[in-house]
Write a structure and sequence with these properties.
Residues 3-205 form the MIF4G domain. This protein is mainly α. The chain has helices spanning 2-11, 16-27, 34-47, 49-70, 74-88, 90-96, 98-114, 123-136, 139-142, 145-165, 167-183, 189-203, 210-221; strands spanning 116-117, 120-121. Helix 3 (34-47) runs parallel beside helix 5.
Length: 222
């Protein structure tokens, strides 16, 4: 019940016509234009960071409803096609707007988290997700707290799953983060704290001890 109320809540930020379109898609996907639905969800996700973190839940519900109703995958296909377009233009997006770029990364990672095939993450999304995270680990991005915050948030959310899909890439990513933490002089104190926390989080098997948790979260709130 909690999930559906969250979906309802997130949909309230749309105009009434779009709310109706999404509500129908969640219950009766065969009766609406699913390409339009996927575009509406992606467009909103690129503008609204909170929605970009929750949109995977809505997409998952529509995918499940369509599979049950018609055994089809029109929505998923359209969604992945649109994601591919946005992914290809990611560097232009980053240059244009950090906020839009951070929303795009959140959305792609959220789709990776929610849309499974036989209870496994989609292989097609593994490399795009890693590519986004590697971009966030470059020295110019590490200077930007918004990008570091996004990177750490995604690794908290999907790092464990992602590592199981390709441990070598995760090792390479964390080598970059370690180098950034140790060698990069222009990090903000908050950026440095976030990097230290995520290094410790992975070293602890994707979990933090209670002491570490108290330390980092009191530092962040201070």
């Amino acid at each position: 019940m909690e999930n559906s109320s969250k979906e309802e809540y997130k949909i309230q930020s749309f105009d009434l016509e779009t709310q109706q379109l999404l509500k129908t898609a969640l219950k009766d996907p065969g009766s609406v234009d699913l390409e339009k639905v996927s575009n509406v969800i992606v467009d909103q996700s690129l503008k609204d960071q909170i929605f970009s973190r929750e949109a995977g839940r809505i997409c998952y519900t529509i995918v499940q409803a369509e599979a049950k109703q018609t055994n089809g995958n029109v929505f998923r296909r359209n969604l992945l096609n649109r994601l591919q377009q946005e992914f290809k233009a990611r560097e232009e997006t980053r240059k244009r707007s950090t906020q839009e770029w951070v929303c795009l990364v959140s959305f792609i990672c959220n789709i990776f988290d929610y849309l499974k095939v036989n209870n496994m993450p989609m292989m097609a999304l593994v490399h795009p997700v890693y590519d986004c995270l590697f971009r966030l680990a470059q020295s110019d991005a590490l200077q930007n707290e918004e990008e570091v915050d996004c990177l750490v948030l995604q690794l908290h959310r999907i790092g464990d799953q992602l590592e199981k899909m390709n441990m070598q890439l995760m090792d390479e990513l964390f080598n970059l983060l370690r180098d950034g933490f140790l060698l990069q002089e222009d990090l903000s104190s908050m950026g440095r704290l976030l990097l230290l926390e995520i290094l410790e989080f992975r070293a602890g098997g994707w979990t933090l001890s209670e002491t570490a948790q108290k330390y980092y979260y009191s530092e962040v709130t201070d």
